[in-house]
Amino acid sequence: KFLSSGLFSLMQSTSLSCVTFPLLILFPQQSGLFEYKIFGGLDDCPPKLCVDVYMDLKFRKEWDQYVKELYEETYDGEKVIYWEVKYPFPLSNRDYVYIRERREMDMDGRKIWVVLAKSVTVPQCPEKPGITRVKSYKQSLVIESDGKAGSKVYMYYFDDPGGMVPSWLVNWAAKSGVPAFLKDMQKACLKYSKSR
């Protein structure tokens, strides 16, 4: 169903030291917005470590250079995350308000970690002047062991960044931004395991 909803294109296959990720991009016919599907592996990063790094918001502020502000609060009994992302000048930064859920599953003897996230609207997090609120965001992350010391990773990501986003920024995200983020995450996993 997902693949039939638009035109499917293999944008780039990136191989970095210890990180190999083909980046697949879907072009939905209705909106023209991009949905990213990423498959690949992180060497020397066990699945639980990857998920722990991904879920640790405080630690993410240390290794993700695009985080401007990131915190979690509880509103009406639900944990909600606020995340402001730095955009290059002269574009406005984007911010997200979202919830997420982490699950560990056993599927036919395979241990799989799943993290789901989606945007929400809460009155305690109103829009801020000068920052564009991303009102439609969803992400799925699935991680399992590669049978060695690393992980196999699948990620689906969609957001509507709002406003006018130039094509050069979209191209940069596809060709450089996402692979660089994954390489940074791989380094963060190694640093995290040494510091804990």
TL;DR?
The chain is an alpha+beta fold. Helix content is 23%, strand content 46%.
- The total beta strand count reads 10
Mind describing the biggest β-sheet?
10 strands, mixed
In the CATH hierarchy, what is the architecture at level 2?
2-Layer Sandwich
Under CATH, the homologous superfamily reads START domain
The fold-level CATH name is Alpha-D-Glucose-1,6-Bisphosphate, Chain A, domain 4
Termini Cα gap:
42 Å
Poorly predicted sequence stretches spanning 5 or more consecutive residues: 1-19
Rg, Å, rounded? 17 Å
Main location: cytoplasm
Signal peptide: 1-18
GO cellular component, one term: cytosol
Protein name: Phosphatidylcholine transfer protein
Reconstruct the topology from this structure.
Blueprint lengths: L5 E11 L2 E10 L6 E8 L4 H9 L1 H7 L3 E9 L2 E8 L8 E14 L2 E10 L12 E2 L3 E9 L5 E9 L7 H29 L1
Parallel strand pairs: 6-8
Antiparallel strand pairs: 1-2, 2-3, 3-10, 4-5, 5-6, 6-7, 7-9, 9-10
Please describe what this structure looks like:
- The chain is an alpha+beta fold.
- The chain has one domain (41-195): 2-Layer Sandwich (Alpha-D-Glucose-1,6-Bisphosphate, Chain A, domain 4).
- Helices cover 23% and strands 46% of the residues.
- The protein is built from three helices and ten strands.
- Strands 1, 2, 3, 4, 5, 6, 7, 8, 9 and 10 form a ten-stranded mixed beta sheet that branches.
- Helix 1 (47-55) crosses helix 3.
- Mean pLDDT is 81; it is low at 1-19.
